[in-house]
Design a protein that fits this description.
Radius of gyration: 26 Å
CATH superfamily of the largest domain: DD-peptidase/beta-lactamase superfamily
Shape: globular
CATH class of the largest domain: Alpha Beta
CATH topology of the largest domain: Beta-lactamase
Strand content: 5-15%
Strand order of the largest sheet: 2-1-14-13-12-11-10-9
Low-confidence stretches: 1-41, 376-383
Number of helices: 20
Mean pLDDT: 86
Helix content: 40-55%
Distance between the termini: 117 Å
Number of strands: 14
CATH architecture of the largest domain: 3-Layer(aba) Sandwich
Oligomer: single chain
Structural class: alpha+beta
Amino acid sequence: MLNKVNAASTIRVNSSTLQQSQFAMIRIFFTLATLLLASQLHAQSLTTFLDDCANHGFRGSVLMAAKGNMVVHKGYGLADAEAGRAQTAETVFSVGSITKQFTAAGIMKLVDQKKISVSDKLSKFFPEAPEDKKNITIHQLLTHSSGFDGALGDDYDNINAQAFMKLAFASPLNGVPGEQYDYSNVGYSVLGIIIEKVSGVGYEKFLQQYLFKPAGMKRTGYLVPAFQKEELAVGYRNGTRWGTAMDHPWLNDGPGWHLRANGGMLSTVGDMYKWYKALQANTILSKSVTQQMFSKQMAEDPEGTTHYGYGWVVQNFSDTEFIWHNGGNGVYNAFMALAPAEDLCIIASSNTNKIISDKIAMQLLRIYRGQAPGELPGSIERSEPPYRTSPVTRSIYNHIAEKGGAYFEQHYEVVLKEAGFDFENDMILFGAGELLLEANNVNDAVHLFTVYTKLFPRIVVAWNQLGRAYLQLNHKEKAKACFEQSLSIRPANNPALELLKGLEK
């Protein structure tokens, strides 16, 4: 009897376990169904928002993935307006300063290989380093606390590594190394040169061999992917064709060192997602050095609202830690954000400064969180562009309004430094010039645009605006010289063509 009782009891237990299992399976099914429905609703809301953005002028590619599921992966608008070529998910774009996290990863790969340490000093790699720079560490270069200037020349000046280091060593530091955050393209170019010195191969070749290829990235690089011009998004500044990276001069092995390793890398949203997956899975870097890259290393502001890691910004949004970076040159723009704890990744590009990808990405995050967009695409389009509302722009404008354009041209280095101009975005000068012209301060505008062309001699819009200002003063020969200089930089799709024809009438 005992055995029978035990047997019966066992049967009841098994029956109860089976019933619990069935209920558990039902709960799992409904949970998955709910998540799937929520995901579909998210996708629908996101798609509606992005379609609306495209209708209001957004041009770019977008990828958003959550927990391994692709939510959005699509191109919007035109990659080439003149040719009528549509933007797709495979359109190649410049990631701008997001390049810095590739450089940081290259450095950390060398750390993984025990070839360098982040505490190593410049004197280890450059015995010729001057006294004020020889003790700058790799950590300080990675965290923008080296004291190096923001930039020392135009992106498309074809300066080689040797000449660049000579220029960097001869330039005064902005502060004592290690004391404060001061965003520096120069510092990241120095890191790229260190990669070459230590590895014995070119910067791009090193990244391809140790980072991109293991991550399965075939559509990222400067020259190695051998992109065709028709694959690239064409950049537009205020509706004017700026062109692609292939329309601007590079050295035989990639961009000059004012740009290399700190910006200008070409990629697609799909390849950038592969990069994210490789970082998450620690397939290209060890977990320990990846955590160093993603850690809060240096406060970017006195309040500590945001921090810089190694090649990434670390910031909290809605109780979630995001790792992000953006990049751009006042024409194109790119943005990448990760929330590793949620396995969330957002990547966006834009090839016009009309509606930039940073705003698009932030709106996508709001929608994903179940919130209404902060502003509709139409209001984005109508809002004052950031290069006009920037405190730096206003500071430059107010200084010129008070002391005059001639004083500005004579003392521009001091004025720009005091205003906080970091050479990352030449559009700040464009905005100040627009404000001067709107206030009918044409003479002052001439002085400002003269400085603009001196600092950025290959920016077409700077020469065109200087020429237009001269035209308003009836200085036709000077205007003609400006337009001709503009055309020497970009012979086709340049408003200077029509402006010169007007002068000849």
